[in-house]
Amino acid sequence: MAALKRARDRDLAIHPGQDIKYVVVDDKKSSRERVALAHEEVESYDASYYETQLVRAVESVLSPLGWDRTEIQREIAETRETDLAAFTEIKRD
To answer: Tell me: the pLDDT tens digits for 32-53?
Structure first.
């Protein structure tokens, strides 16, 4: 709804059933200030919002195997970040 209101504020032509691409920039804000539209320049996004969405999705898949939200969050916190180049390096024995 926030993206729709933001698009209307910017006089964009929106048609029923049309997708509106957006990114959540600050989930704590309300309404149209919460999101940025795809064509707008975005300096940062709300990482905690997307982490919460990720945990919810993973929980729905792993809960039948006994995983709960706390265990999933613990695993995410312990995960080591790496850059894409690490996956392209050739390993030599």
So the answer is: 889 999 889 888 899 999 989 9
Q: Residue 9: which domain range? A: 2-37
The SS3 assignment for 23 reads strand
Predicted structure pTM score: 0.69
Q: Where are the alpha helices (DSSP H) in the chain?
A: 2-9, 47-62, 69-78, 85-88
d(CA 6, CA 22): 10
Contact 40, 23 (CB under 8 A): no
Instruction: Count how many domains the chain has.
Output: 2
